[in-house]
Specification:
326 residues, alpha+beta, Arc Repressor Mutant, subunit A, 3 domains, 7-stranded mixed sheet, 4-stranded mixed sheet, 38% helix
Length: 326
């Protein structure tokens, strides 16, 4: 099972910038024999959510209805969220798993975790399928390009070094951008080069259906908790506009930063209305990549607040975007 877990951890890191630590599941010996023989198990946490990986090692794929029965038996033994993992699942069965709300991961291909509001589908160039929503890595490429030179020619290995992803993840990001018709690729020797097709404004507007809020998790902690991060949310918007700073300051950290901090500190959460609190956001990609001093970049900030229907917030977002001068 070591290889399967390595692939699973690598996929979670590349897709969500989350490093998971797995441990053996001690309940295994109390399971029926047919479950022990078909599956391997590992317990973990993803974004503070206790989970159990159920890794299907059988070469014969079971119907989703049977998988659900198996997972229901496991759910009786443990209250964690159960995630079904298999190296290959047919497109038909993946659809059925989603219909039955079964969380699952096909490493390198698809991740459906409804309890974490994650539905990530990797699209490869040969499939020529338009993505439903960009992966965090693809979104990072878009934001990097719009904040720098939109006409710059991009190379997977170079972008991987700049953004901290693997070369394979950057190749998948290029596939998604090309499938969405935001960019085109050409070959230069052995290198694959990508160039965006439109101006910054055109690219930003055309990319909107594929972009999502980078915020994976929001919580409130007391001021004295020694967590360092960038200014985000309405706190950052006050820096980019005439908006007054909010009562509760907001800071943001990456998933890796948050997990590392929690390993060394107890972080009691408090109610949003607590006057001594501050909001913490955990993002799907490292906010430091595009930060301006100690404030998150305006494009990621816009995506994190665009669903806030407060008129003052929307007016301030419009003001911030006008200042970009596109």
């Amino acid at each position: 099972m070591k290889t399967e877990l390595q692939q699973l951890r690598r996929y979670l890191h590349d897709a969500l910038s989350v490093d998971v630590v797995t441990k053996p599941w001690r309940v295994v010996e109390r399971l029926p024999r047919f479950l022990r023989e078909r599956y391997e198990f590992a317990q973990t946490e993803i974004l503070e959510t206790p989970c159990l990986f159920v890794i299907d090692l059988n070469p014969v794929e079971e119907p989703p209805a049977t998988v659900r029965k198996h997972l229901d038996l496991l759910r009786i033994k443990d209250g964690r969220d159960i995630i079904y993992v298999r190296q290959q699942v047919t497109a038909y069965n993946r659809k059925r798993l989603i219909e039955q709300k079964i969380p699952f991961i096909v490493p390198g291909n698809q991740m459906y975790l409804p309890m974490l509001a994650i539905d990530l589908r990797e699209h490869f160039r040969q499939m020529c399928a338009e993505p439903v929503v960009f992966s965090p890595a693809t979104q990072a490429v878009v934001i990097h390009t719009l904040l720098h030179d939109a006409k710059e020619e991009l190379i997977p290995l170079d972008m991987a070094r700049r953004l901290g992803y693997s070369a394979m993840t950057m190749t998948r990001a290029f596939n998604e951008l090309e499938a969405a018709k935001l960019a085109t690729t050409t070959a230069r020797g052995r290198e694959r080069c990508l160039r965006f097709l439109g101006t910054r404004r055109e690219t930003w507007e055309k990319a909107q259906p594929y972009l999502r809020s980078p915020v994976m998790k929001r919580l409130f902690i007391e001021h004295h908790v020694p967590l360092a991060g960038l200014r985000a949310g309405l706190t950052a918007l006050a820096e980019y506009s005439m908006l007054s700073p909010p009562t509760h300051p907001t800071l943001v950290v990456s998933g890796d930063q948050w997990n590392e901090f929690r390993q060394h500190h107890k972080v009691p959460q408090i109610h949003e209305a607590d006057p001594d609190g501050r909001e913490v956001q955990v993002w799907s990609y490292p906010p430091i990549l595009f930060a301006r001093k100690d404030v998150v970049d305006p494009l990621s900030l816009y995506l994190s607040l665009k669903e806030d229907h407060d008129e003052r917030t929307q007016a301030s977002l419009d003001e911030m975007m006008r200042k970009l001068g596109w």
